[in-house]
Design brief:
Keywords: Sigma factor, Transcription, Transcription regulation. Residues 8-61 form the PhyR sigma2 domain. Residues 101-152 form the RNA polymerase sigma factor 70 region 4 type domain. Belongs to the sigma-70 factor family. ECF subfamily. The structure is a single chain. This protein is an all-alpha fold. The chain folds into 2 domains: 1-77, RNA polymerase sigma factor, region 2, helix turn helix motif (Rna Polymerase Sigma Factor, Chain: A); 93-158, Winged helix-like DNA-binding domain superfamily/Winged helix DNA-binding domain (Arc Repressor Mutant, subunit A, Orthogonal Bundle). It is built from 7 helices and no strands. Helix 2 packs across helix 3 and helix 5 packs antiparallel against helix 6 (127-134). The radius of gyration is 18 Å and the shape is globular. The relative contact order is 0.10.
């Protein structure tokens, strides 16, 4: 089988995870990943193996997501009837509540901070690879991560990690 397609296939779970974290909607995320894969395969002649296929795919996915957001803001919001909770839904467990609170907190971050945080924290990408995907210098990535983490601490009421606290 084609080595390029093997590399693309290996990236699908990570692309799906990232897309779901960005969109917070399984169907939109799956559509985003499908569009990304279609674009990557159609444009494979443009791929220059100077770096990993993974970074190239994440860049495509991120650009498609940003384009979809711009389109969404022009059209206005549509509500999926299936996403409206029913009144008889049982209360979620405490761990689920904390996770849901963190997901809501991440949603409030500016897009550039959210994208950076999800690439590094969710996908575990090295800083340089995340910076390359976002097409920013590594210092800019670090700054976005710092601001995102600080904002999340404020939103969730979580104190800074002990080694990051200032001593008075």
């Amino acid at each position: 089988m084609d080595h390029f397609l093997d590399q693309v296939e290996a990236c699908v779970p990570a692309l799906r995870r990232y897309a779901r974290a960005l969109t917070r909607n399984v169907d939109l995320a799956d559509d985003l990943v499908q569009d990304c894969l279609e674009r990557a395969i159609a444009k494979r002649g443009l791929f220059r193996p100077t770096g990993p296929v993974r970074a190239w795919l994440f860049t495509i996915l991120l650009n498609l997501y940003r384009n979809a957001l711009r389109s969404y803001h022009r059209r206005g919001e549509q509500v999926d009837i299936d996403s409206v909770p029913e009144f008889a839904t049982p209360a979620p467990q405490p761990g689920h509540l904390a996770l849901a609170e963190m997901a809501r907190a991440i949603e409030t971050l500016p897009l550039e901070q959210k994208e950076a945080l999800l690439l590094v924290a969710l996908e575990g990408l090295p800083y340089q690879e995340a910076a390359d995907i976002l097409q920013v210098p590594i210092g800019t990535l670090m700054s976005r991560l710092g601001r995102a983490r600080a904002a999340l601490r404020v939103i969730t009421g979580t104190p800074a990690e002990p080694h990051l606290r200032t001593v008075k």
